[in-house]
Amino acid sequence: MHSAPAVSYPVGRSRFQGWLVGLTGLGGVLTGGFWQQATDLAGWRQWLFALTLLGTCAIAAQTWRRSPRGILHWDGQVWRWTGLDASVCGRVTVHLDLQFWLVLSLRMDAGARLWLWPERAADVVLWNALRRAVFSRGGSGQAQDAGVDALQVRR
Q1: β 102-108/87-97 pair status
Q2: CATH assignment, 7-13+68-154
Q3: What is d(CA 79, CA 137) in angstroms, rounded to the nearest whole number?
Q4: What pLDDT band is residue 68 in, cutting at 50, 70 and 90?
Q5: Is 131:7 a contact under the CB 8 Å cutoff?
Q6: CA distance 134 to 125
Q7: What are the sequence ranges of the domains in the chain?
Q8: Residue 148: pLDDT band by 50, 70, 90 thresholds?
Q9: Range in 29-33, 35-39, 80-84 with the lowest mean pLDDT
Q10: CB count, 10 Å around CB of 3?
Q11: Could you read off the pLDDT of 75-116 as tens digits, one per residue?
Q12: What are the Cα distances from residue 34, in Å, to 26, 27, 30, 44, 45?
């Protein structure tokens, strides 16, 4: 079986991730509002919920704003992330595939994990090449390798 061809794909702040964070926060606010209307009083539980929601939304928004920006390279053998401050090698795992958006993690040799949210809109021409690379047997992460092993054991 042949490996997927080399590809370099730009990854930055994901609009999809931003919308997901915003809509989740809005859902929390609506839930809190409905809860407030149902109980018809503002007790300590409602204030704790509001403070927790505010803190969680602030952390999620800050994390989104600080999303890593750089280039994800696949040379046919090794994944490499080249960002503003470093260039590291690692193993890519696909966590979510929504056709136009991917959620990937790059597990570096040191054990740290870098979360990446590539979008088709970043480079429409290279999108299919990136998808071929992350789903190829040589380019895929541990989760898919484990799934293949599990299928072989069942037979």
Answers
A1: antiparallel
A2: 2.30.29
A3: 13
A4: confident
A5: no
A6: 16
A7: 7-13+68-154, 15-65
A8: very low
A9: 35-39
A10: 15
A11: 988 999 998 778 889 999 999 999 999 999 999 888 889 999
A12: 12, 11, 6, 16, 14
d(CA 94, CA 105): 7
Find out whether 103 and 95 touch, Cβ atoms under 8 Å. yes
Residue 9: how many other CB atoms lie within 10 Å: 22
Pairing of strands 7-11, 102-108: unpaired
First to last CA, the chain: 21
* pTM: predicted TM-score of the whole model, two decimal places: 0.76
d(CA 30, CA 52): 14
Nearest to 73 by CA among 16, 126, 125: 126
Residue 134 C-alpha from the chain's centroid: 13
Annotate the chain with three-state secondary structure.
CCCCCCEEEEECCCHHHHHHHHHHHHHHHHHHHHHHHHHCCCCHHHHHHHHHHHHHHHHHHHHHHCCCCEEEEECCCCEEEEECCCEEEEEEEEEEECCCEEEEEEEECCCCEEEECCEHHHCHHHHHHHHHHHHCCCCCCHHHHHHHHHHHHHC
